[in-house]
Amino acid sequence: MPKRYTNTDKWEEKWFRLLDPAEKVAWFYIVDNCNDVGVWDVDYDLGNFLIGQAINWDVFLKKVSDKVCEISNDKWRIKGFRDYIRYEEYLQSSHWKTLRKIMLESAGWKCKLCEAKGNLQDYAPTGNYLIKYMDKENIEKCFVLALPTGKNKDYRGINTNLYNEVSQYQDRLIGLGTIDPRDGKKALDEMEYFVEKLSLKGLKLHPSFQEFYPDEKTIYPVYEKAQEYGLLIYFHTGSGGLVEYKDKYSNPFFIDSVASDFPNLLIVLAHGGRLWFEEAAMLLRKYKNVYADISSIYGKGKGLETKPMEMFLYLIKMWVGNFDKILFGSDFPVFEPKYNLDILIKARKNLNKKYGKEFLNEIDFKKIIYNNSRKLIDRL
C-alpha cells in the first residue's frame, strides 16, 4: 500500500473543526484503512473498538458528506482520495494495476463531464448511482460513453450494458456506443443496432486502445454512417500514459482529414489532444463541428498542476480566438469533477492575471462549464 499523506490544511477548515475529538479520530481511521482508491469497507464495530469510543456513524457521515459518499450499505468512498497518497507510488501499487487491468479489459462504460468508468464495483457504476452523484454535484447532464478496449470484442454486449444503465435516464444520461471501426459491415450493422434499437446518440472510439489511425480510408464508411445518422464521435486524443498502448494513434493530427472529408460530422477531442495541444487548436480553428473537452489536463510536477490547462487555453485563445467549442470534463473516478474544476479556476486566475481579466471572462467561463455542452447536446 502506498504511503498516505495527511492534509495539514484540514485543521483550518470548518468541516474538520466542527468534528468532536472522537470524530476526528474516525476521519483518520477511515483515511488510513480505505483501499488504494479511497474505498472503505464499512466495519463500525471494529472502528469503535480501535477508536476507543462508540461513534454515531450516521451523524459522522452527514458531517463529512462533502468529503465522503456512501456508495452501498457496506462501502464508503473518500472523494478526491489521490490527494492523500503519494501518487507515483500509487501508480505502482497492486490495487491500481488491478484497477487499470479491469478498466482496459472489461466491457465498461464511462461518462464525460462527470466521468465514470464501468465494471469497477467499488464505484457502483450504475445509472442510478451516477444520477445520485450528479444530483449531489449539481450536474445536469453528461455523456455516458462505451469504453472500447480493443481486447473485448463483444461490442453488442458492451452497447447493451450501456443501454441498460442509461435507458431510464435518457433525459440526463446521453449514451454513446462503440464498435471496432475496422470491422466492415459488422461495424455498420452494430451502429445501426445501437442507434435504431437502443437510441444511443453517438460513437466512442479510442485509437490507442483499438490501434487504428483515424484517417484510414477503410474506416470512412463508419464516418459516412455517423454523419448520415447525425451522430457525435468522441475520439480519445493525446497521451494516455499507459506503457502497453501506443499514443501515436491518438495524435489529433490524424483527425484533420476526417473533419475535412466529413464537414457535417460532429467530433469531440477528449483531453484536448493532451500534449498535442497545437494540433487540437488547429482543428478547432479550421472546423466548425470539432470540439474539445478539458478532462484530465493537469501537470504532475509539484506546483505545475495548472500549467498544461493554462497552455491549452492560451493556445485556443490565440489560434481559435474564442472558447465556444471547449467542453468541461473530469475523468471520474480517477479525478473528481471538483478537482478538474479547481484546475480550471486556478488556470483562469493565472491567465487573467497575466493577460488581463478579459482573457477568460465570466461569459467564457460559463460557456466552458455549461453552455457549450448544453448547445452540443441539443444538436443530437
Overview of this structure, please?
By secondary structure, this protein is α/β, with parallel strands linked by helices. The protein has two domains: about 10-85, Arc Repressor Mutant, subunit A; about 95-380, TIM Barrel. The protein is about 45% helix and about 15% strand. The chain contains 16 helices and eleven strands. It has helices at about 15, 20-35, 45-50, 55-65, 85-90, 95-105, 125-135, 155-165, 185-195, 205-210, 220-230, 255-260, 275-285, 305-320, 335-355, 360-380, and strands at about 40, 70, 75-80, 110, 140-145, 175, 200-205, 230-235, 265-270, 290-295, 325. Strands 4-5-6-7-8-9-10-11 form an eight-stranded mixed β-sheet, sandwiched between helices. α8 (about 155-165) links the parallel β5 and β6 (about 175). The chain is globular and about 70 Å long.
CATH evolutionary superfamily of the largest domain: Metal-dependent hydrolases
- Shape descriptor reads globular
CATH-scheme architecture of the largest domain: Alpha-Beta Barrel
Our count of helices gives 16
Kindly, what is the distance between the CA atoms of the first and last residues, rounded to a whole number of angstroms?
45 Å
Total E-strand runs: 11
**CA radius of gyration:** 21 Å
Order of helices and strands: HHEHHEEHHEHEHEHEHHEHEHEHEHH
Which helices and strands occur, and which strands form pairs?
Layout: H1 14-17, H2 21-33, E1 39-41, H3 44-51, H4 57-63, E2 68-72, E3 75-78, H5 87-92, H6 94-105, E4 108-112, H7 127-137, E5 142-147, H8 155-166, E6 173-177, H9 185-196, E7 202-205, H10 207-210, H11 220-229, E8 232-236, H12 256-261, E9 266-270, H13 277-286, E10 290-293, H14 307-320, E11 326-327, H15 337-355, H16 362-378
Parallel strand pairs: 5-6, 6-7, 7-8, 8-9, 9-10, 10-11
Antiparallel strand pairs: 1-3, 2-3, 4-5
Helix pairs in contact: 9-11, 13-14, 14-15
